[in-house]
Amino acid sequence: MPGRPPAAGAVAGVEATARLRAVPPQPQWAAPEGPAEVTTRLRPVPARRSPRAVGAVICGVLGLGLIGGAVTAGALTGGAGASTAEASAYARGHGLWHNAPVDSLFPRTIQGKGAGPGKADRSWTRIAVAPDADCATALGPKLAAALEPVGCARVVRATYTDATATNVTTVGMVFTEEDDHAMVSLSRRFDGQKLDERAELMPHAYTAPGTVADRFGDPQRASWTVKVLVDAPVVVYAVSGFADGRVIDDPEPAAEARDRASTTAPAQAGLGHEAAGVAAGVERALKSALNPPTEPPK
Q1: With helix as H, strand as E and coil as C, how does the chain read?
Q2: Cα angle, residue 198 at apex, residues 197 and 200 outer, rounded to 5°
Q3: Strands 152-162 and 122-129: what pairing?
Q4: What is the pLDDT of residues 242-252, one digit of tens each?
Q5: Within 10 A of 169 (CB to CB), how many other CB atoms are there?
Q6: What is the rounded distance in angstroms from the CA atom of residue 106 to the CA atom of residue 110?
């Protein structure tokens, strides 16, 4: 591996970033990135032409013909508009993991207004980005199996730390291969069976040697969240823990760890809020990347 890893005890702000797919090879232990783009930009999605309006129905057409014409008109106009927009968003989403800049998927900093315990504001800094991976490698076999109905294209991951560098959180996005119907079905299954709260489906942590997350592995996972999106072909997850390497014997789902009544170590340390806050920040970034602002007409 080219380059020499940073010395032990490196300061918290140093980032060890591995690029996503379709990026020229970079030294693993390069200096923190500059403000320039680090991966290819989103490919423009061709605009869909709106269907032509249905012509006025001739007065002499029989009543049955009028009904049929009205149904056809609805299918060609309003009904097609919504489905076309959804299909376009899904088409962009399927390839976003290798088309979008790293910073548009994993912002260098995430601001969480009211995201901490007691509605306190929080902020997180990205310290590492993992190479894209397959589901079994990034997630573990049981979570990968649970997501099998929607297919797994690739998984992209990054690890963040809080402002005090005492907590670390791995956040990831699973880009799927199916359409909105399959994603809605999977979302209902996750909610109905509470799959997002099962410890055996907890995603893997991403260790980042040379950073404050160099002791963050699976034994250190303390809280987690998994969310199946229905407006994009993506599953967003996050898993948090302490940066000091302590082992957590009884991890707690973020939904429970954020409950004020919980007295567990993850809850008392706010690690449920960490996982939920970082996941929410990355979800916001994903949706912005899926729907980039259009330039106003000149």
Answers
A1: CCCCCCCCCCCCCCCEECCCCCCCCCCCCCCCCCCCCCCCCCCCCCCCCCCCCCCCCCCCCCHHHHHHHHHHHHHHCHHHHHHHHHHHHHHHHHHHHHHCCHHHHCCCEEEECCCCHHHCCEEEEEEEECCCECHHHHHCHHHHHHCHHHCEEEEEEEEEEECCCCEEEEEEEEEECCCHHHHHHHHHHHHHHCHHHCHHHCCCCCCCCCCCCCCCCHHHEEEEEEEECCCCCEEEEEEEEECCCCCCCCCEEHHHHCCCCCCCHHHHCCHHHHHHHHHHHHHHHHHHHHCCCCCCCC
A2: 145
A3: antiparallel
A4: 999 999 999 99
A5: 30
A6: 9
Please enumerate in sequence order all residues whose Cβ is within 8 A of that of 221, keeping only pairs 6 or more positions apart, or say none. Answer: 202, 205, 239, 240, 241, 248, 251
pTM of the model: 0.73
> Distances from the Cα of 189 to the Cαs of 143, 193, 257, 259, in angstroms?
13, 6, 22, 23
List, for residues 141-157, the tens digit of each pLDDT value.
Answer: 999 999 999 999 999 99
Q: How far apart are CA 177 and CA 135, in angstroms?
A: 12
Q: Which residues of 64-83 are buried (b: 16+ CB within 10 A; e: fewer)?
A: eeeeebeeebeeeeeeeeee
* Pair 162, 124: CB distance under 8 Å: yes
Q: At which residue do the structure tokens 């939920």 appear? A: 276
- Ordered by start, the domain boundaries in the chain are 16-24+89-290
